[in-house]
Structures are given as C-alpha cells and as structure tokens.
Amino acid sequence: MILRSLTRRPNSLASRAAFSATRGTSPLARSLHSVPTLANHVELQQNGIPGLMSAKGFDIAYTQYHQHILDSLNFIIAGTPKENMEPKALVVDTAREPNNAYLFNHASMAFNNHFFFSGINTNPDVVSRPSAQLERVISETFSSVDTLRATFLSTADAMFGPGFVWLVQTNDNAARQELRILSTYLAGSPLSGAHYRRQSVDLNTHNPDSYEATNSVGSFGAAAKEKMLPKKPLGGIDVIPLLCVNTWQHTYLNDYGVAGKAAYLQKWWDAIDWSKVEEKVTITKQARDSRPAQAKFHYGA
C-alpha cells in the first residue's frame, strides 16, 4: 500500500534528517511554507471560532496541526525543483507519482485543511446564509438547502475514518453543472488533475480482492505500466470544490469529545461562510432565469 502515515518519513528522508543533524544544519532553516492567516485570525487565536471551536480547539486543529504538516512538507521539498510550488500545485503534480506519496499526502492535507478553515464564517456579527441565486443552484440538485444539509451531514457522520466531505460542482457539462457530495478519505484530493488520488473509499474497510482492480496509483495497478497518462483519468469528471468539512478526530475531539462528531458537524454547518461558496460556484442559466423561491432555512439540530 502506498499510503503512508502522514507523520512517518520514508527511509530516504530519515537518512537525510540524520545527515543534516551530523552537519549541524537543518533543511527547515528556510520556511518555504507558513501557516496561512485566516480572516479575523488574531480573534480566532484568542477566542476560537464563535459557536464552533474554543481557542484551544482552534490552536490544535489549525495552528499546531497545520504547522506540523507544513514542517514536514518544507522538509521534503527544500532544495528540490518543487520547493517554490504551492500545496495545490504539488497535489496535482505528484498525484500520479507513487514514489512521492509522502509528499502528496502532506501537500494535500495542507490544501484541504486550509480550504476547510477558510470556508468558515469567523465573524460573530455576521449571520451567513445562501443568497437567493445560490439557493436555486442548490435546489436544482438537492431540491432545497434543507435536503443538502441533511444529506451532507449524514454522509459526513457515516464516514468511518478520517478525511473530508466536499460539496463540489461538476465542470464538464456547461448546460448542467450539478452539485455533488464527495468523500475523500485520509489526504485524498477532489482536485481536477488529482483524481487518481481521490481516495473515495476507506481502504481499511474496502474489499482487498478488488483493490488491485481499482488502484490506479500503486506499483501493482494497471497505471503502473503507463508513464505518461493524462491528469484526468478515463471517465473522470472535473469538479470545482465549493466547501468541505474536516472529519479528522483532532479537529473536534477537544471541544466535542470522542462521541461528539455529530454535534460538531451540526455546529460546522451553522458556521459555513456562504459568501465563500458563492465566490466559487457557477450560477447556472436556469438558476439566473428562474423566479426567486421563498427561502426556508432550518439549521437546528
């Protein structure tokens, strides 16, 4: 299996670290990537995310964890041709490279975790709601915002194992750009060009007899015989990520406890910054031309 622990370095990197230690130098002397600043960042550090995370919970889930991921990522790419690439570019660039699975995992986690936090409303004075046009886009696929909420949260709650659940918009059919819910386990990516590492199933519970047939990145997969395949696999669909929720336990354990995942998910839904979703979504012609529906929002448990 090519999926390594996110915190376990390959032998080559371990040797490099040992060499650096004997030389008295550190490959992390230059901080190539640093933890991105969020909106209202100082307030988040002091008070946490209103209604969602305490200051300690935010420190663990974002400040400490993101720094940990970036420390490892910086270590891997320092002094290489990839050192000036952003995490998103690294994800797409290494998705088809089994030997770079360790790099991919950290770059993808850096992108996913920041995408999650940057999609949260951090202003306690603002109540975020979908606009009328965005609500109509949602209704084209899910019939209503309430239906999307119920489907999305049940999908995330049922996810057995860590990962992310995404709301994405298909980008292949200009006439009908549907919204879909997509689960990615561990550090899997929804990005177009990284479909081979979407990891939409939990390999801990996946039927091992079918692994060889479905794996498209490992040395035992069919793709191992092809060195230059297009970034998008046959039958793949380009999607645009709109929002996501992080289901890794360290994100909610401090504030909600071991059995608090469902409560955390409900609080997260109430904290979505819908203006960020609208910045990314394509408003379809049907949604633009249709008459505004009377909005009904039920965000309670």
Automatic annotation (TrEMBL):
GO terms for cellular component: cytoplasm. Residues 130-192, 238-279 form the Manganese/iron superoxide dismutase C-terminal domain. This is Manganese and iron superoxide dismutase. InterPro entries: Mn/Fe_SOD_C, Mn/Fe_SOD_N_sf, SOD_C_sf. It comes from the Eukaryota. Transmembrane segments: none annotated. GO terms for molecular function: metal ion binding; superoxide dismutase activity. The lineage of its organism: Eukaryota, Fungi, Dikarya, Ascomycota, Pezizomycotina. Component of the mitochondrial ribosome (mitoribosome), a dedicated translation machinery responsible for the synthesis of mitochondrial genome-encoded proteins, including at least some of the essential transmembrane subunits of the mitochondrial respiratory chain. The mitoribosomes are attached to the mitochondrial inner membrane and translation products are cotranslationally integrated into the membrane. Signal peptide: none annotated.
